[in-house]
Amino acid sequence: MAHDFLSDEWMDAIEALRPEAPEPPAATKDLVINLVVPDTPFGEREAHMAGGQFERGLHDSAPTKLTVPYEVAKSVFIAGDQQAAMQAFMSGQIKIDGDMTKLMAMQSAGAPSPEQVAFQEKIKALTA
């Protein structure tokens, strides 16, 4: 069953998948980034990515915080549309607080492994 991106039901489904998650790329294994999405259909959502996985709430030690519009976040994190991220950044829709080099580490992680691609497909299938 598909759920709205970042809804409580979606986060529950993502957490249930966590044991199946493949090992993240070495460049992102210890990376923690906070994410604030102010305009979801169900209010502002706060999450963080740690080791390539979404988790609820902000992480106290995250060196970087992204504030991203809902549709842009969905395009980037679910559809994998890096062009949407670049366009949103260049137009001022994405706000970055903290260490921008951590975002560059995410981008320089290289192509995903076949296991990571398969796992991302599972996440897409859970997302309305």
Give a summary of the structure in a few sentences.
The protein is an alpha+beta fold and about 130 residues long.
Q: Any descriptors?
A:
128 residues, alpha+beta, Nonspecific Lipid-transfer Protein, Chain A, 5-stranded mixed sheet, 5 helices
Give a description of the structure:
The protein has 128 residues and is α+β, with helices and mostly antiparallel strands. α2 runs antiparallel to α3 (82-90). The chain has helices at 8-17, 70-77, 82-90, 101-107, 114-126, and strands at 32-40, 43-50, 53-56, 64-67, 95-98. It has a single domain, classed as SCP2 sterol-binding domain (Nonspecific Lipid-transfer Protein, Chain A, 2-Layer Sandwich). Strands 3-2-1-4-5 form a 5-stranded mixed sheet, covered by helices on one side. It starts with 7 loop residues before the first helix and ends with a helix.
CATH architecture: 2-Layer Sandwich
- Specify the structural class: alpha+beta
Instruction: Note the total helix count.
Output: 5
- Oligomeric state of the chains present here: single chain
Mean pLDDT: 91
Any chance you could write out the topology, listing elements then pairs?
Elements: H1 8-17, E1 32-40, E2 43-50, E3 53-56, E4 64-67, H2 70-77, H3 82-90, E5 95-98, H4 101-107, H5 114-126
Parallel strand pairs: 1-4
Antiparallel strand pairs: 1-2, 2-3, 4-5
Helix pairs in contact: 2-3
